[in-house]
TrEMBL record:
This is Putative phage integrase. It comes from Desulfuromonas soudanensis. One of its GO terms (molecular function) is DNA binding. PROSITE patterns: TYR_RECOMBINASE. InterPro entries: DNA_brk_join_enz, Integrase-like_cat_sf, Integrase_catalytic, Tyrosine_recombinase_XerCD. Residues 108-307 form the Tyr recombinase domain. One of its GO terms (biological process) is DNA integration. Belongs to the 'phage' integrase family.
Amino acid sequence: MRTLEFHSALAPQIRNFISLRQLSGTDYQSQALLLSYFDRFLVEEKFEASCITPQITDRYLLTLSHLAPRVQSNRFCVVQQLCRYLLRHDPLTYVPEPIRVIASQAAHQPYIYNQREVGALLAAAAELRPPGSLRPLTYRTLLGLLYSTGIRIGEALALNLENFLCAEERLYIVEGKFRKARWVPLSTTTCQALQQYLDRRLRIKPRSPDSPLLLNQRSRRLHHVTVNLTFRQLLRRCAIPHNEHAGPRIHDLRHTFAVHRLLAWYRDGQDVNARLPWLATYLGHVDIHSTQVYLRATPELTEEVARRFHDYYLQQIQTNGGQS
């Protein structure tokens, strides 16, 4: 991540606050980026006061009104954290009230791609320009990896060459959410697709073990913003309805992976409840409660659940009938 620069009257305090959070073991990179937006706002407002006031936080909140509720909450939360830090040194610092927690029904509803849509996205990625460059293969590989493994987009973009162990059929996620590392087993077909990409990727520098696995057109690591813009282009090309705030999002491929994995277990006759902890571990969750957020009742999944219940019901009738 590029080094952030702060230029407001509170820049020294903001830098000290970020350093303190990082020294405590918190990554805080994404939060630091959100603080840079507040710093830029202070510059634009020509804010020169020695402490934060209710008026300045109210005006900042107004500038966030065009954003999705969850984004507003995230951006304002880091400002609250900064204010609590500043309060220790200046008792006149105002600490704003938190934005009311968004009700679950108002939160983003994940979009579960069907098999046809996934295939269309992969095909469209393979047709990206410029033809003959690494870019089409990079995006096809990225989308295929997200769908087949369910890893987070940030985890995929952070992968280095050394993190893919083809012979062992697994990926090493160095730093997932909450800075947790984990191994991700891969299917044989996913390994083959990644190796095919590497055969082409390794013709381009950098090729050191710690260099990015997925490269952009400038031979650098893919950037999250650019990937999202490209993904929206692919959605349009595949005629998948979407908008910037409501989705579908590239992160929904992670949701799709979880639902399709559950569907496959139902179709294979597996004990789904017993396997949910496996899915939680694979996705990098602490427990199955976090995993349950990713599960949605698609028509196919509902049909499989109903079929299993029907078969169980018939079996119970036959068993009880035989005993009588």
